[in-house]
Write a structure and sequence with these properties.
heterodimer; A: alpha/beta; Rossmann fold; six-stranded mixed sheet; 17 helices; elongated; B: 347 residues; mainly alpha; 2 domains; binds iron/sulfur cluster
């Protein structure tokens, strides 16, 4: 028997699993309308590729993945697309989100399928592609795209494949019944996973409240030759361990089976471990061997408000109320409807929300069964929460800091490592909704991070702007100096010219005098010479400037910036004046100022671009 | 029926804070019984009056703070404080001692700090220490165990005990009705070997003080019951008792006149066991993590011994607890347990 490790804390809530296990899995009938949220997984929502009115076949892709962390969506049955719109989604928030609604035509007619006789002929990438295209995301918990999890980086060696068949939440028996009835499919799924990630160890973890399936699973796994599949020496083992909530948390399960802790903020892959739920394994098997995408799942319907609790194989998109009706749901007896288990599940907003890829259970308890929590009393710091916490946190301290909104303290006490399992709330004798506080605090911390980043960004931008303005200012000064120097030079030259013209003048005078003396009437030559000279000078100056511009276009841009700057200053001054005098044209002036500013920015940009280009050329 | 929208977890175990407090009260019963058998009705009257005063004061304070009175009284915490203080006080304490003690416990130590859960100091011990400092005479006068009373002295009946507490009747003013406690004796002793001391004074029983030892064992039973019911973990009480026993062993000094007795004597006399399981385990004012609670408990054990041996007070549980209450936040700071994923192993 392999060694197992213990996790800290944990609780033993009443299991309530037998109710839904008395019957075999029932295939639920097809609901008249199926509602498929575009986001049933973690990552970017899928994008609809069908239109209202389109007819679709069962298994046809109706929404494609967007980006690497995303999965496509397929029609669970044949029918017509009747709506693509916002509908209430099964989520704790009770919000609406985009959904594709299919009206079933009752034929349940498949698209063409290409079953593969032997998956061993496919290589890793082909298998991962199939899994990606089949829309498979984790079916145990959060719904992380499976292909992403399997497509591990080459520099990280994965040596352990962990199969999560823990199902530690009370009431839920979806995985249990899956193992009872689909052991072979699970084993084939495991074999495909083994082929993909080539582990040397396959650890199949089952809590000891499901010992009845161990034999079947062990036998089914023995059908496969894992050594050949991986090309390594691979050992597959079914490991049972004491029932305790939340052993099925990915991190907890890894600790139980390997004794290792997933580093805070890290992934199991860093320890060379990939963890998959057994429901996912079956979906992989169906996708690879039968060419059937993920369009249905096993869901437990239980609780005292249903008369016939059992497990259903149900099409995704089936409304909860439709499924409940199959189990003879007593609406008047039920106080809340929970999707998932009593520890981590969420209360749904209404009964019309659909079953999605992650829905492992619909729990319809009576008030007596799960009573409304009484008002919270004071925290007596009894420490029962800390005893129960599987992450070895101090929930009472977190609660204290959460109340005081001491976000730094919360981070210091590792609130980020809280897996929101609810064990602390469960044991708290004062009925404090601890997890609720942690969720809110996590949001606040996240918000603060975002704010902080934004502030940093703004600061950077501000500093960059300041720097740029400073640089412009410096350049302006330099340019002014240069111009002054030029002007001085020009003035000196002009001075010389003046001297010359004085000389000319004198000469002219002399000539005049001579003329008057000699009475010779000739047109003074100095005037045309003078005017010619002016025009020529202007022309020369422009030419010089143009030449200078051509040689050094920067100066032109600098001039543009300068004039824009002046305009901004002026227009802003006008706005200030207008504001003071309540000028009716204020709005217009403001617009003008804004325009001027925009111009300034544009000219500055041009200048910068030019400089960058220049420096790039250099 | 409208669907309730509350967040997970939806399940909750049935034990409430009131249940916890009731269990603590229940667990004091063996000890109270043993004290009554040993010292007469005095302890019961203490409990009765302290509870009445406590409830009244708490109700007043809640009304002044505009809090729902019934909701908060229902947590039984005030009764726990009252019972613990009443047990710690000498039997037949006059009513004004009890009232003063409860005033400081409930109003000052608890409600002024914001009520249950917010008090940095153990309320019962605050009340006790204030009384000890203010009324040292009354606080250090213990009645003699019944079995040591001269045959001529009759034990006051329940009714008489009440009248005594209310000041309407005098304690029997016979010689021998009150006696120095065994802890007083060992502390004041500087001439006799411990063995001789124990021969000479009837206050010494088989292991601890006469009467005290059985009360201590009874409190131990109550405490173990609470531990079994997971009301508290072993860390603080056991580490306190170990620290106390260890130091008594180290300083036993072969039972010389400087010694203050064997470890067994130290554990089974005075309030050591009672303190370990009913005071040190008060979660509100103690350290929070298990490691922290070991340090916290050990600190109290060390302080108890230090004060018993070198201090001015014969018993010292209250001082030791209050001093460690001061230290609790510091202990917490340095004993934060390693969160999953933060251990060195995983890095
Ligand atoms: S279990 Fe509840 S009352 Fe006890 S310490 Fe934790 S939060 Fe406080
Ligand atoms: S919800 Fe968080 S704090 Fe509470 S027990 Fe679970 S991991 Fe610990």
């Amino acid at each position: 028997m392999k060694k197992i490790w213990d996790v800290h804390g944990g609780i033993h809530p009443p299991e309530n699993k037998s109710q839904s296990l008395s019957k075999a899995i029932v295939t639920a009938p097809i609901a008249p309308q199926l509602t498929l949220p575009l986001s049933q997984h973690i990552g970017a929502p899928a994008k609809a590729i069908v239109n209202i009115g389109d007819s679709v076949l069962k298994g046809q892709c109706i929404a494609e993945a967007v980006g690497p962390v995303s999965v496509p969506l397929h029609a669970p049955t044949s029918g017509t697309i009747v709506a693509i719109e916002q509908r209430t989604i099964p989520h704790a928030s009770g919000l609406e989100d985009n959904c594709i609604v299919i009206e079933s035509n009752g034929n349940d007619e498949w698209r063409e399928r290409h079953p593969i006789a032997d998956f061993r002929s496919l290589d890793k990438n082909m298998l991962i592609d199939i899994i990606r295209n089949a829309g498979i995301s984790g079916m145990g918990g959060a719904g992380f795209p499976t292909s992403v999890k399997l497509d591990t980086r080459d520099d990280i060696a994965i040596d352990t494949l962990v199969l999560n068949a823990t199902e530690c939440e009370p009431y839920i028996t979806a995985d249990h019944s899956l193992m009872r009835e689909y052991a072979d499919d699970i084993a084939t799924g495991v074999a495909i996973l083994a082929k993909i990630i080539k582990p040397t160890k396959i650890l199949f973890g089952i809590e000891d409240n499901k010992l009845d399936v161990v034999e079947g699973i062990t036998a089914a796994l023995a059908e496969h030759d894992f050594n050949t599949l991986t090309g390594l020496k691979t050992e597959a083992e079914v490991i049972t361990f004491p029932t305790k909530y939340p052993s099925g948390g990915e991190k907890q399960l890894i600790q139980i089976l390997t004794g290792k802790e997933v580093p805070s903020g890290g992934l199991p892959a860093e320890l060379g471990i990939v963890c998959q739920n057994i429901g996912t394994a079956v979906a992989i098997k169906n996708a690879v061997c039968l060419d059937e995408p993920l369009i249905s799942r096993i869901t437990t319907v239980t609780g005292d408000a249903v008369n016939q609790p059992c497990n259903y194989e149900v099409l995704l998109g089936t409304p909860v109320e439709f499924l409940l009706a199959q189990s003879d749901y007593q609406a008047n007896k039920s106080s809340r409807l929970i999707m998932g288990g009593p520890m981590m599940g969420f209360a749904v907003a209404n009964t019309a929300v659909p079953i999605i890829k992650t829905t492992n259970c619909i729990l319809a308890p009576t008030e007596q069964e799960l009573p409304t929590p009484p008002p919270a009393q004071a925290c007596i710091r009894c420490g029962m929460c800390a005893e129960a916490c599987p992450a070895s946190l101090l929930p009472q301290q977190l609660y204290w800091f959460a109340q005081g909104k001491e976000l730094d303290k919360l981070e210091e006490h590792n609130i980020a490592d809280c897996i929101e399992c609810g064990a602390c709330s469960y044991v708290c004798p004062s009925n404090i909704p601890l997890v609720q506080y942690y969720r809110a605090s996590k949001v606040e911390i996240q918000q603060r991070k975002v704010d902080h980043q934004n502030a940093e960004l703004a600061k950077e931008r501000f500093e960059a702007r300041q720097e740029r303005l400073q640089r412009l200012e410096d350049e302006k000064i330099a340019a002014r100096k240069a111009r002054q120097a030029a002007a001085k030079l020009a003035a000196e030259q002009r001075g010389k010219e003046d001297e010359r013209s004085v000389a000319v003048q004198a000469a002219v005078e002399r000539v005049k005098a001579k003329k008057s003396q000699t009475e010779t009437s000739t047109i003074p030559t100095a005037t045309p010479v003078d005017s010619d000279d002016l025009v020529a000078r202007a022309v020369a100056k422009r030419a010089a400037q143009q030449a200078e511009d051509a040689a050094n276009p920067e100066s032109k841009l600098i001039r543009a910036v300068e004039s824009a700057q002046q305009r901004v200053t002026k227009s802003q001054a006008r706005v200030v004046d207008a504001e003071a005098s309540q000028d009716p044209n204020l709005a217009i002036l403001k617009q003008a100022a804004e325009k001027a500013e925009a111009k300034l920015v544009a000219t500055q940009q041009a200048l910068n671009d030019f400089k960058e280009q220049n420096s790039a050329q250099e | 029926m409208a669907l309730m929208r509350i967040t997970s977890p939806h399940a909750h175990n049935k034990q409430s804070t009131s249940d916890v407090m009731r269990l603590v009260l229940l667990a004091t019963l063996p000890g109270v019984l043993a004290l009554t058998l040993a010292f007469g009705w005095g302890t019961i009257i203490n409990i009765l009056l302290a509870s009445l005063f406590g409830l009244g004061l708490e109700a007043l304070a809640l009304a002044a703070r505009k809090r729902p009175i019934a909701f908060y009284l229902n947590d039984y915490s005030v009764l726990v404080t009252a019972v613990l203080l009443a047990i710690a006080l000498p039997p037949y304490s006059p009513w004004w001692i009890l009232l003063t003690g409860m005033f400081f416990s409930i109003i000052v130590a608890k409600q002024l700090y914001g009520g249950l859960g917010y008090n940095p100091f153990n309320p019962a011990m605050v009340g006790y220490v204030v009384l000890l400092i203010s009324f040292p005479m009354q606080m250090t006068t213990w009645v003699a165990p019944i079995e040591l009373l001269p045959a001529s002295v009759s034990i006051p009946s329940l009714w008489d005990s009440l009248l005594i507490a209310l000041g309407l009747l005098q304690l029997p003013a016979v010689d021998g009705f009150t006696m120095a406690t065994p802890l007083d004796l060992v502390r004041q002793n500087n001439a006799l070997m411990i063995d001789d001391l124990q021969q000479q004074y009837t206050q010494f029983g088989r292991w601890g003080g006469t009467g005290w030892e059985w009360a201590s064992i009874a409190f131990l039973i109550g405490g173990l019951f609470l531990m079994y019911r997971k009301i508290f973990t072993w860390h603080a009480p056991i580490s306190m008792l170990i620290a106390l026993a260890f130091l008594s062993a180290v300083f036993y000094d072969g039972g010389s006149s400087a010694s203050i007795g064997t470890p067994a004597f130290q554990l089974l006399t005075g309030a050591a066991i009672f303190g370990a399981f009913f005071i040190v385990t008060d979660p509100v004012s103690s350290a929070v993590s298990n490691k922290g609670r070991i340090i916290y408990g050990a600190g109290i054990g060390i302080l108890i011994f230090t004060i018993r041996k070198w201090g001015n007070y014969p018993d010292s549980v209250a001082f030791a607890v209050l001093l460690m209450n001061f230290a609790a936040p510091l202990i917490d700071h340095y004993t934060q347990p390693a969160t999953y994923g933060h251990s060195k192993k995983s890095k």
